[in-house]
Input
Amino acid sequence: MKLNKVDTDKAYQLLWEKITSLELKPGEILDIAVLADELKFSQASVREALSLLIHDHLVEAPPRGLYVAGLNFDDLEKISTIRLNLETLAAQQAVRHATKDDLVILSTLCEEIAQDTRELFVLDQHFHQAIARATHNDYLEEMLQRLYGLSKRLWFLALPYLDFLPSAVKSHIKLVDAISEQDETRAMEIMGNHIEEFYLKIKDIIREKDLI
Amino acid sequence: MNKKTPPETLVLGIDTGGTYTDGVLLEYNSHQIIAAHKSLTTKRDFSIGIENVIKEIELKDPSAIQMVSISTTLATNAIAEGKGKRVALFLIGYDPDLIDSFDMAKRFATPHYYYINGGHDLHGQEHAPLDLQNLLEKTKAVKNKVDAIAVSSYFSPRNPEHEIRAQNAIASVCELPIVLGHQLSTSLGSVERATTAALNASLLAVLQEFIIAVRRAMEHRGINAPLMVVRGDGTLMNDEFAAQSPVETIHSGPAASAIGGRFLSGQDQALVLDVGGTTTDLALIKDGKVTVSETGASVSGYQTAVKAANLFSIGLGGDSHITLERGNELCIGPERVVPLSYLSHLHKNVGERLKALSKRGWPAPYPRELEYWFLQREVSDIHSFTAREQQVIEILKSGPKPATEVLKSLGLLDPSQIDLNNLWREEITGKSGFTPTDILHIEGIHSPWDVEASQSALIVFSHYLNWGEDEFRRIFWELVTEKISKAVIYFLTEKAIPAKNEPIHALANWFLENTLLPQHDQLETQIKLKIPLIGIGAPAKEILDRVARILNNELILPDNYQVANAAGAVAGSVMVTEEILIYPHLSTGDIDVIGYFLQARDGREEIEELEDALNKAKRLAGENALSAALRSGADNPQVDIEVIQDGMDSYRIKARAVGKPRLEG
Output
């Protein structure tokens, strides 16, 4: 059941998108009245949306004022560690619980072709969400979704210097094969490598270009 | 000794009609109207007109308002003008040949429809396996061309499994909102269900934006109260429900008017006539309730499965354009224009020019010279318009001009030579002309604006027709009365009224004509309406007085009948209905009943004994209706449950939870 009001929901989606795509920069001040005017929402809905984003660790509320949460290298380490473990767990659970429908969905997603890096990122995201759904474990799905918001910002930071993603699609295909063949170990290994490779690249770029 | 006055319960009702957006501040318990406000309806964006009402209506203490409720033609209008969002419709298990042979595809309300294998049968058994692969391929191909997706599966009210599986799959490849047929309708009509789902999908974003804008306007005025929206049957739902099922708001405007008429008059048996600026709407009150149409609401030729009040509407209102058609026949409506008295009230020179026109000897003035065009609002981006549109805007910058003059300066003879629909639709330019409102000005009944402008227009018309001015007015009133009386007879008998020259039985025709317009020297015929008329809307008194006399019953004009439509927006109850189906599980070969399926909105289970299934269904339907009514803003809702046999061994368990809206102080 949906818990939020329509306008809160919509304001949350808009602000989530602006923050995770770095349109609103880490550390930027968030003024409720200004945002409500810009987005043409009531202040109440913007206030509620921001409090949901505080919960997502995307907005910080020190004693005074509201800010877009900062990004630092420590966070990157922490996020990648958890995500590596949870995604591997998701791969294992997907082998155990995926239905026929899930397999059709996963193979369809593998076949999609992206036109540019940004689109490829969206496809990658759809794929990981579909794996999470194939676990049929709501809690795991929700945790992965929250981590996604945090790691999306890191990815957007590195975006201008990235060119490696097409190889990721190959590992998607291998992963779907492993799931349909019910090979737990291989599925976990492929997913583990896939995630690890991603974060290593990101870390390298961020360090090299001194982005944080 | 001081008397204790009961605490006031203030609510704000808003109705957006075709011409005006009305607002009333009302004391809920005493039905007392405390303040009212009228603002022009802004069709390009309905929320602007509503914001104006919320901003302007007189309120001592906005924070004391305990509910805001809105009836709106938003959905109806968005469908009529194609302003809904683009939708892809997936039809699971539908037979393309059958649809083609009855030419039903045009009823789906979207050009993007796709047939997918799957679907169930009458007994909820899978008819064919769902072709998920094909569904996903089609979704991928269309997802960047549409804004929402609708899914309707064959016999989904009996078993929605394929719709639900389709939803999960579609949500995995795109972020578009998805509407499922079985969530909107439990009726088995598969085409109506598909149409309803497609229309609902196309309206989701439209209603969402609307609610966001209204909430913002309320906040600006300091109103912190629940927001309700009127359904097509006059009941209320809270804004969250409305955002999910916008299709249910179709016809909510006329339904609210009817309820307002009953609410302010207290009549339990009556015919409500709402005379607006653009249309006159008819609804029937029986035993204190607005009658509901047996078939679903239809809008712009699309038949839906949505429950709506039984309404009839004719294109005749206070601001209908009075024109001459071929053969100098006097016509009223259906086009709505700004009355000349009002245009001249805003622009003095229009009145002066009309006066000069009425005095012109040669060439004799034509009635079509009375049509004025004017600029309705500032244009921010002139380059977004075509060259022709820009020319027209330029010409009208110096003030309103007769249409004939605008066309002449463009080197054109007839308005059909130029396409200005975009300018009218975007409300950049407006049209003004001679209207019933002008005649009311002349008769001194309702004359807040420039009477002289109306008078000049009347002179032009009557001279051209070689009628006296009084004769013109007499013929005008006969025509109005005849049109509305015929509409009443048609609405109540459901018998079509033939066009003037259409041959029907000569005697029947004579009876009708002689009744509406007595002309025989020896024979008088009469018709008697057995229930009173309730008139609402600003010009109701004058326009309906004669209709009531023809129909031989009284015309009741409740206090504040001019804004009864807006009062109707707050007068409805909050209602939720939940249906559960029970149908037999048959053994192979359809021979024995081996159990019963209980199909609720979100799942199906099997129960061995019918008795147990019925009991469980009654309990479940009651609980679901009650909790949904509470969630949609009902205060202390009462539930009643009905069991309807629906074919062999099949039952429909219908729970209805009804309560007054919950007010928050």
User: Anything to note?
Assistant: Chain A touches chain B through 22 residues (CB under 8 Å).
